[in-house]
Structures are given as C-alpha cells and as structure tokens.
C-alpha cells in the first residue's frame, strides 16, 4: 500500500511570469518542479550568497510549540507586551523607567513600531544615548539614567532569550536543519568560487552545524588562544595540496565564507590588542557583555563600529560582483542597511535576487518590501513561497526549503552515508551503547 504524496503548494513569481500553486505549465510541470529545477541553476551561479534571517533559527511545528530562537516580533513581545510586565521588571525595565522614557524623551514602549521590533527600538535608544552624551542641558542629562537602564535591560533580555533558545532540548531540531543545509550546499561544483553565508541572527546555530558537519568556514576571526576579529581574513582561503610532489594548491571544496551582520552571542569588546573584538565561550557572555550589534547609524563606541562596518562592507563586496545571486531565507526586509545593499546590487544587470517569502498576490499586503520588489516585474527578481497561510507545507520555511526545495543528494550515496553516520553518533551520545565500557 503506497502513501499519498505530500502536497507542496508552491507559488513561483519570476518577474512578470507567475506559476501559481495548483497550476501546471505546457510540459505538465508543477510550480514546485519548475522552482526546484530553476533554483538548481541558481546554485551554480558564479558568485553565490545566502542571507539568513531570524525565520531560519525558529521552527514552530504548531502554534504552541516553538523551537530555537523566537523571531523578532515574539522576541519583542516577550519583554514589551502588557502580559509580560513581570519579565520586563525582572530585567530592570520597570514601570517607572518606562514612564520616564515617555515623559522625558517621548519614547513610548507601547508604540507598535517598538513593541514588535526590538531592533527598531534599540536604534532609537542608541540614537538618544549618542545625543545625550553631548548635551549640557540638565533635564536631558537626567534622562540618561533611565535610557541607559532600558538599553542594558533589553540587552540582557535578548541575550538570555537567545541563549535559552539555543541551549534548550528543542534546539537540536533547528541545528539539524542547518546541518542539512550545509551538507547540501557542499555539493556545489568545486570549479565555482566558494559561497558566502550572511546572517542577521545572533545565535550560533550556523557555527555548530558547520562544526558538526566538518565544514570549514572563514568568519573574520583569527587566532588560537585569543580569536580576534581581523577583516583581512576574508581575503584568505583554506587550501589543500593537490600534488605531494609539487606546490599546487586549491581551496577546500566545502569552504564557506560566513558573515554575522548584527553581531554574535560570543563576540566581546576587548581593550588590549590591535583588533578590539574577540570570540569568547558562550559561558562568558552573560549580563549584556556579548556584542549584539544593532543596525543603528550612531554606533555605541569604536569597537562596535569596527566589526559592524567591516561585515557589511564584505557583504556588499560579495553581492555586487558580476554574475552574483543572492538568496534570502527567513528575512523580512526589515533592515534598511541590508536593503540598501540589495537595491544597489539590483543596478547590476547580471545580479539575481531570489526571495523565499510568502508571495504578495492578494488584496492585503503583509510585507510591503516584498510587494514592491514583485511589482517591478523584473525577471532577475524571483519570489518563491506558499500563499496559503494555513498550508501544512510552506516553501519559504527553512525546514521545508532545505528538505524539499534545495537540490542535493537525493541520488548521491555520500549524502545518505553522511546522514547515517550522524544518526549513529547521535544514538551513541544518547546512551544507546550503555552496555559498553
């Protein structure tokens, strides 16, 4: 008895050409088949970059169960919603502090622009912090106390929320998605330049997945005892010797260039040394010491500015090259710094943008940025996703993308072998070999 095939309601917008879920082209191919075939060609682009947003580190199999890190809206609600006032108070964001911010600076934390987007709120708070540091007005100077308190409270909360989401038992589910992603990406032709992965996330899921899969990556940090940020490392590669009898070398086939645009849970500002940012163990990153770099034009200090600007410069360098493709996953286009780089890349004729997101074809719009990009009817801009919000399978969800949309090794015995080995290791670590000494 055979089971029914899984329904994959995918819509593929390719410029002005629309392949809607449930329809077929002249060759009787479904939109899913068309998108998967065309995306396979994207993976063969000369210069390939992925941009992974918060949606990739969050997996919600149902409304009451979320694995990994909360996305931006629930993360903000976790401390700013009325129902979570006790959480806010725990971190020092008391009612008195909220009232002072509103009365002295006109910052209403109940404003929807802030209560659903912590990055937007932090941009405003950091902007005020920069301005108040220069003022001689006594009233404004007194407002620095609640302002600094609010910033520190939110930093501690964000760190704890990300750390808890990453260390929880359900986090292994998210790590497994990232492992599949990197294993499939490693099948990319060795004749092509090595791909770049950029992320706006703070978590360490990418690094853990690459470490477990044995995939080397260059993330801007060099060193052994003290790993310091050095942007020159992005010009380096990790090579292997082709012939033991000669000096012929080539980059490792599965090497990845990795960019964390908004900082990381394990980045720290340090005072000594030429490079003022270091990677430290996650256990040393509590109490707001981690450098979570928010996209604000008023940098908190020079050490924040250095990695932030260098990471963005490297991201820009990657996507504006000739014959480049940028694939966005779990990214809502809520960061203007990133968006401006993408728009600049669209001025290059050979650039291609592939957006995995819910297509905006109805009368209502949930994402204005995606709608505007669709409306350009530019054949270089593709939007791939599932329109039906109630569908069980959604093409723009990270787990469905890596499992079904991303081509890989359905026919590659090495892919299956690696998966079997990883399953074996997992079973041994879970105590399936308790009888052994």
Protein described:
This protein is an alpha/beta fold. It folds into 2 domains: 11-65 and 171-422, 3-Layer(aba) Sandwich (Rossmann fold); 68-167, no CATH class. A hairpin with a 7-residue loop joins β13 and β14. It has a 9-stranded mixed β-sheet, with helices on both faces. Strands 8-9-14-13-15 form a 5-stranded antiparallel β-sheet. It has a two-stranded antiparallel sheet with strand order 4-5. It has helices spanning 31-42, 72-80, 85-90, 95-105, 112-115, 118-132, 138-142, 144-167, 171-185, 205-213, 302-319, 336-345, 368-375, 398-405, 413-429; strands at residues 11-14, 17-19, 47-52, 58-62, 65-68, 196-199, 217-218, 221-222, 227-229, 239-241, 249-251, 256-260, 263-269, 277-279, 290-292, 324-329, 352-356, 381-385. Helices cover 39% and strands 17% of the residues. The radius of gyration is 23 Å and the shape is globular.
Mind telling me which CATH architecture of the largest domain this is?
3-Layer(aba) Sandwich
Strand content: 15-25%
CATH class of the largest domain: Alpha Beta
State the secondary-structure class.
alpha/beta
- Per the CATH scheme, the topology name of the largest domain is Rossmann fold
Global shape: globular
Note the gap between the termini.
43 Å
Outline the low-pLDDT stretches. 295-304
Give the tally of β-strands.
Answer: 18
The number of helical segments is 15
Strand order of the largest sheet: 2-1-18-17-16-3-6-12-7
- Range of helix content: 25-40%
Count of discrete domains: 2
Radius of gyration: 23 Å
Overall pLDDT score: 83
CATH superfamily descriptor of the largest domain: TPP-binding domain
